[in-house]
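Sample log: BTB/POZ domain-containing protein NPY2-like.
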Amino acid sequence: MKFMKLGSKPDTFQSDGKNIRYAASELDSDIVVSVGDVKFHLHKFPLLSKSARLQKMVTNSSEGDGDEVHIHDVPGGPTAFEMCVKFCYGMTVTLNAYNVIAARCAAEYLGMDETVEKGNLIYKIDVFLHSTIFRSWKDSIIFLQTTKSRLPLCEEVKLISHCTDAIASKTSIDVHKVDWSYTYNRTKIPEENGNGPNSNGLRSRVVPNDWWVDDLCELEIDLYKRVMVNIKNKGIVSSEVIGESIKAYTLRRFPGFRKGVCQFSDVSRSRSILDTVVCLLPAEKGSVSCSFLLKLLKASISVDSGEKVKAELVKRIGQQLEEASVNALLIRATDGEATMYDVHVFHKILENFVMHNEDLKTQSEDGNEIPGVLSEASKLMVAKLVDGYLTEIAKDRNLPLAIFVGLAEMVTDFPRPSHDSLYRAIDIYLKEHPGISKNDRKRICCLMDCKKLSVDACTHAVQNDRLPSRVVVQVLFFEQVRANASSGSSTPDLPKAIRDLTSASYGSSRSAITNTENSEVTASAEELRALKEELAALRLANGGLNGDTKRHVDKATNGRMKSILSSKKIFTKIWSSKGRRKQGENSGLDSPDSLEEAKYTPSRKGRYSVS
């Protein structure tokens, strides 16, 4: 730590009791200065030669009681006043980063400037600050921390602005020129530790780009904000490093934040910190992770931050939603809400993703090159994310069907190579909401495209008595079409209305045409495992089938499928009204009548619940 010594005379200040201080001298004191509850017995000449305020106070006091003045609001109290007095006497005073701010503010209060005497205390301290303290990284941080209790006066003499500018300048310097000590608690990459492939076994000192982050975490939020604003205004430090600093500061202030569990003992203070953190976030997409943004959103909801703060977080999350995970998006609903999770917040996030995508597409059509345009891969990931989210919220028995359908329809046009996850979400919803009407069952099943179900999902759906019978027949038909296509056989000789289903659309719009008849649909390992577990449970429920019995059951199931598919009469009756519909009104899962209206006993006998 840097320091400066002023004066050369020995320190002769002594105490007489608890609240009396005096300068030992052959001359008797001729003035008493009361600072708070401490009385200083001093001499007028050294004091008045350097302090304009004391000159004025002594002049005024001579008209009253003469030799005693009272000072109750000197910055730094008796300790800071004594440093200034020692300077007046020429005694040795040692200043450092911890006490210099108190001495500087006390000198300002006492008027110890150049108008009274050349080379006065204010001048000497300012030289020390700019030549030593503000050039030292560690001392600058310490100095800024000590300004907290003296903010008004520090602001007035611009000490804080000078210090924050000095700190921001150091953070913006080329890392190869950083030759001072700093605190760094994060894991460095191999090259930064001297263990990289080009280090030849020699440990070299490589300074990371975010070397300054940990030290700034020591600052209070108001001072941290001023430093970060200064850093951002300089425009040299990258948005990723600024984002890392904000993340580190948040984790330091809220120890449980990393795990998503925060206990806010002081809600008002926590809200102030979170609101400030959000306003400091860089505008660039990807400067902080989506996971961090979601944690900020959850915390902001917990402390009841303003709508502006939450809306900003929702917007940012929506712009990089493809990075999120389902668990991170499951935000618990606040007290008084009927649903288990805050589905309205997720709806807003998803809405922002869609709007952001449309805005970028419009700008691209206008000839503007937009960096980071959402790719088809991003849409695919978000569609998968929505399917996973629907699977979780479907377990909530208080979840309205309209919300479930509304979320699913927002990504209807997004690419999905498989609809297994969506089918699973629909199945869970039907299981947890057994009382919904027939029309509602049709409505929710209309979200799914039977042509995009895997073999295991089709097998599960065929035996699922929660699905409308019409859906089951369609699954059987498309499975048979796929089987014939893979074996090189032709599609069964069925009515044209049924064959047209291979190119029919799905979803509430009933207008989009999909060309997936010849595509091979695959499901993720997790989805297949979940479906196979349910199929295994089904077989075990039939009495623990051995190998021969299992083959017999599978053969019987396949036989039922073929018998259903071979019945042209039933298909013709089911879709008889399909040809009468207006062109473009076809739907893969929605039709005017239900299968129950057709007398078809075999399909019902062979279906039962598997969940």
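Observation: The beta strands are 3-6, 13-15, 20-23, 31-35, 38-42, 68-71, 93-96.
Observation: The mean pLDDT is 80.
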